[in-house]
UniProtKB/TrEMBL annotation:
GO terms for molecular function: mechanosensitive monoatomic ion channel activity. It comes from Vallitalea pronyensis. It is found in: Membrane. GO terms for biological process: cellular response to osmotic stress. The keyword Cytoplasm does not apply. This is Mechanosensitive ion channel.
Length: 410
């Protein structure tokens, strides 16, 4: 084609050989570019439009994902390359090099399409319920790395002798140390991902805590090298995957699946307010519905013991205390609370006294694991317990405040 145009220019326009050669080459290149442009428009405007219509008509969502990931768009770029390939015969001295460039370009487009296809596989897999416990994003990234290496090898093979490509492949074994150094995080991440997945230690959606990296939130992504945590303050923390094997972390998913979230909090009682129940206080506490059964049976038991041992002195005998009665009340209150999980451990215990008073610890589980609901349930419980302490003539321990000193002053 170039020769024909060159001869035509020399014959018709009496151009010199050098000028005719340059002009014919420019005309040929512009013509090829124009044909490539038209082919690209036809492919994208006509073929891709029809593919889009077909995709929207089908009930299958996979083809829509393929279209959204631009798999078909990438394949459309091959059409102009085919035009250049057939036109390369017109350039006698450059045809071989042009064909090699076209081969490399098509190989590159195929690689990009393969990557988009693999991304589609990940998106389709995410729609499955088991994808959270068995994420494959890390495995897909490994496949991409291997595919990239082989694409690079084949591209080199296109521009060199075939023996060179095989020599390059054989040298990969010798380059293993360098490869391991370059892809250290990827290799460690892959091994860590397999271990975490096999042992079911970490899944997308899990709430984890890893204080060393400032992570406290929900796992939103598990990739080959990093695990992304969306913290409750809306920040993101990226942690190397292999750190989950080397370092300790807390996974709250077991709590969510169990359906109960623990409350473990103490009320510190001023020990100077602890005393035996007198008749007046006992009479007032008997009016508390949750204590009637306890006080009736406890009084009968204490009276029987004291009569059996002939002890009337409160030091030698047994007598009800306001702190013990308070513990019994808290236990009954929790047993009748509809927000407390009755199948799990439920304790109201007295811990060792400290310089901050006597701790009365509430140890139980709520039946709602949602954070906001849990905090509300716990606050309601302790609001009630703190407010009712005065009924038992108990005082909460609190360090002196400005109001305390003001009372002393005035």
């Amino acid at each position: 084609m170039v020769d024909h145009i060159e001869k035509w220019l020399i014959t018709e326009y009496q151009m010199g050989a050098n000028m005719a050669s340059g002009v014919s080459l420019a005309i040929t290149i512009m013509g090829i570019l124009l044909v490539c442009f038209i082919a690209d428009i036809i492919t994208k405007k006509i073929i891709l439009t029809n593919i889009r219509k077909f995709v929207l008509k089908t009930e299958n969502v996979i083809d829509e994902m393929l279209y959204d990931k631009k798999v078909f768009h990438n394949l459309a770029h091959i059409v102009p390359a085919i035009v250049v390939y057939f036109a390369s015969e017109w350039f006698h001295s450059y045809s071989d090099m042009l064909q090699k460039i076209v081969y490399a370009y098509i190989l590159f487009i195929v690689a990009l399409t393969a990557f988009k296809l693999l991304d589609t596989v990940v998106e389709v897999y995410k729609t499955k319920e088991y994808s959270k416990s068995r994420p494959i994003k890390g495995i897909i990234q490994v496949v991409k790395i291997v595919l990239t290496i082989f694409i690079g090898v084949f591209m080199i093979a296109i521009f060199t002798q075939e023996s060179t490509a095989w020599a390059l492949l054989s040298s990969i074994g010798g380059m293993s140390a360098i490869i391991i150094l370059i892809f250290k995080d990827s290799i460690l991440g892959l091994v860590a991902g397999i271990q975490l997945s096999a042992n079911n230690q970490l899944r997308i959606g899990d709430w984890i805590e890893m204080p060393k990296f400032g992570a406290d939130g929900e796992v939103v992504d598990i990739s080959l090298t990093n695990i992304t945590v969306s913290n409750w303050d809306k920040t993101l923390t990226n942690i190397p995957a292999y750190k989950f094997i080397d370092e300790s972390f807390k996974n709250w998913q077991g709590m969510s699946e169990a359906g109960g979230r623990r409350i473990k909090r103490s009320i510190y009682i001023d020990m100077t307010s602890i005393k035996f129940l007198d008749e007046d206080l006992l009479g007032r506490l008997m009016e508390v519905e949750l204590l009637q059964h306890y006080l009736t049976h406890k009084q009968a038991d204490i009276q029987a013991y004291n009569e059996e041992h002939n002890t009337s002195n409160k030091v030698n005998g047994r007598k009800l205390t306001n702190i013990g009665t308070f513990r019994a009340y808290v236990l009954e209150y929790l047993k009748t609370n509809g927000h407390i999980h009755q199948d799990y451990t439920l304790l109201v215990r007295q811990l060792a006294s400290t310089d901050h008073g006597l701790p009365i610890e509430v140890y139980c589980f709520t039946n709602d694991t949602a954070w906001a609901n849990y905090e509300g349930i716990m606050a309601d419980i302790f609001d009630h317990l703190l407010a009712i302490l005065d009924v038992f003539e108990l005082r909460i321990y609190q360090n002196p405040t400005g109001s305390d000193f003001k009372k002393i002053t005035y």
